[in-house]
Amino acid sequence: MFFGGNGLRALALRGTAITLGGTASQQILRLLSNLILTRLLFPEAFGMMALIQSFTAGLQMFSDLGLRPSIIQSKRGEDPDFLNTAWTIQIIRGIALWLFACLLAWPLARFYGEEQILWLLPVVGLNALITGFYSTKGIVANRKLLLGRQTVIAVGCQVIGLSAMIAMALIWPSVWSLVVGGLVSSLIGVWANHRFIPGMSNRLRWEPTAVRELIGFGRFIFFSTIATYFVGQGDRLFLGRTISLADLGIYNIAFFLGAFPGMLGGMVANQILFPLYRQLPPAADRRNFTKIRKARDLVTSGQMVLYTILALAAVPLINLMYDERYVAAGPMLVVLALAQLPGTVLIGSSRLLLAVGDSRRFSRLEIFRGFFTLAFMISAFWLWGIFGVLVVPALLFLVTYPLQQSYLARYDGTDIPRDAAFMALSALIIAVAVWLNWDSLAEFYQTSRMLAPSVTGSWEPKAIFAR
Fold first, then answer.
1. Model pTM?
2. Percent of the chain residues past pLDDT 90, beyond the cut
């Protein structure tokens, strides 16, 4: 009844259900493989891979030209010449990314004092070269809110990639098993994307008009993604230089589990809310505003439920699933989940700026967030150690919210009463979770604070929680 038909409501509901189901399936698969791999590998391997993935994510985001949002919002989003030009630019970008990964390997290995980076980064960088050949069929399907095949392909590729990781870890228990699995998944993903998603096959094409439109829209996206990188990956880059690899591996376990609600919300925002904003601009009709609000309420509520479960169950969950080497990930996960709660009120709202073509203000907002992320991360780590890095999302929300609302108000996208209600609920959940986890949180804070640079007077990496 609700999911049948081809109307916008049916497409949005189906798209949301598919996105939720697909993301949940992928996260369950990642969790199962993570539980297996943590028993085959040492924490240092996860720490090193987290660092390498942060580098490659940086290369990807520093060169982001906004091709996906450009295609989704453009009137030429289904024009063969426009799509083929975007595909050609994507391939060139992938080749450039791999070359940059090779060039950066030596200086990064020297900076972090880890010789493995010299060989790992160029090999992991091959993922960027491979994914540069992804077909634009998936983006066009996303534009139409047709997400079924993409989700099946993503889950299937993940199964194959994770199976390759586990097989390699049994034969060769090192960080290289994680690298090989990632490459296998990327190769299968590109092939399946071209083979199984219906639509126009891509060919090399360079149309100057299309290039100008793609680059014109994407030039502001470029700056915003650099800032977004520091928001999403800056913690591991920073901690990779200030704590031991073993502690970074423990932190990454907490981050892996705590990132699920945000990942789920982000995917819904990109694949559902962004196209909905394009088709139902709030400023055009009050009914559009109401429909968008209902969609955002659903996403925010879902995220809050997941973060609440994590905050309440984190310590026993970590103790149950992992061995004693990872016990510190429990209180880390509690703090991380609670720090993310206030930001759930904003999920997806900034996509309105992209939907109306205002990539300039979207970029300003992301740059603002990136600047304060770095500022808060450095100062909070200096004061409180790892605990300080974990509370950065909550501090960031406090300074970001006013600016974001001022931008959204230009397009009738603000909803202050709704946001206030969710913020009050977040505050209540935080108070209850802190009270229930007081003993473990107090011990974690004291240990983290005791070894913070403000206490020790040193920024040199040191093992704090690794056993």
1. 0.74
2. 27
